[in-house]
Amino acid sequence: MTMTAASSRATGRLMRPGRMLSLLIVGLLLAVLLVFFVLPVLWLLLAPSKTAGEVVRDNPLSFGSFQQIGVAWRHLFAFQDGVMLTWLRNSAVYSLGSLILTLVVSVPAGYALALSRFRGRKTLLAVTLVTMIMPQATLVLPVFLELNRFHLIGTVWSVILPFSFYPFGVYLVYIYFGSSLPRDLLAAARMDGCTEWQLFTRIALPLARPVIGLVAFFSFVGNWNNFYLPYLVLPNSDQFPVQVGLNQLLTSTPSFNPVAGAGLNITVPELALAIIVAILPVLALFLVSQRTLVAGMLAGATKE
């Protein structure tokens, strides 16, 4: 017993330097996260409570006043006769419209790829995977030319149709149905006389609710935050989604654009408030759907 206790103490002494090194590394990583992620978010939340001069002069993490938040709010929503509300409405229309098309296409496509055997299936899977990992910017030019060919530039469909093309969603649904849908259940349903359509609508879809929620969340967030394509295909300010509108706000802020008009009342606090307003829908959706997201992330983790 004495030798065992002595050896345990010796091992503890040998492990202490390694443990201290691990704690040091973790502390450094947390400090980096704090500096590069947490502090900018805190600054963003506090900036609308101050005037433009106070943002420059005062402590970056100090709070101004609720009255100044109200002033920034009025200035922001008075910009170009309330165009901020128009941008938010446009983002909702583009994101929800493309989300509906994404689910209508991605879920049946993933189901068919997982449970059907047909010529060209492996090729189609490979193309889906390659398209999924390609940077979105590489497809902007061919998509633009295609939209222009069909005279869709400047219309709602020039945003909704490309947004609804979501190979990542197809692959998620394919993985779920390929690994987690019990084949015995489908076979029993076929023996009871279910058609393939009934199998899909009455058995597969109810079981796939978690992964459908996951696809819907990622699709909505990606569509809401997309900037590059709407910036190219929408010519008018009243057609912009909020992300493109933020760029217009930025160019109207004298702090970032010296030639901007001084009478627009758009300064750093208004710009910070606009960013907060733009991310609130995504944040609210995330808070409401946390349970569904966790279930969707675990879907397909085990094979039935």
Description:
This protein is mainly alpha-helical. The chain contains 15 helices and no strands. The chain has helices spanning 2-46, 52-57, 66-78, 83-115, 121-133, 137-149, 157-164, 167-180, 183-191, 196-207, 209-225, 228-233, 242-251, 268-288, 290-298. The longest helix is centred in the N-terminal third of the chain and has 45 residues, at 2-46. The radius of gyration is 26 Å and the shape is globular. The chain starts with a helix and ends in a 6-residue tail after the last helix. Residues 300-304 have low confidence and may be disordered.
Topology:
Layout: H1 2-46, H2 52-57, H3 66-78, H4 83-115, H5 121-133, H6 137-149, H7 157-164, H8 167-180, H9 183-191, H10 196-207, H11 209-225, H12 228-233, H13 242-251, H14 268-288, H15 290-298
Helix pairs in contact: 3-14, 4-7, 4-8, 4-11, 4-13, 5-8, 8-11, 11-15, 13-14
Please tag this protein with its features.
304 residues, mainly alpha, 15 helices, disordered C terminus
Compact description:
The protein is mainly alpha-helical and 304 residues long. The protein has 15 helices and no strands.
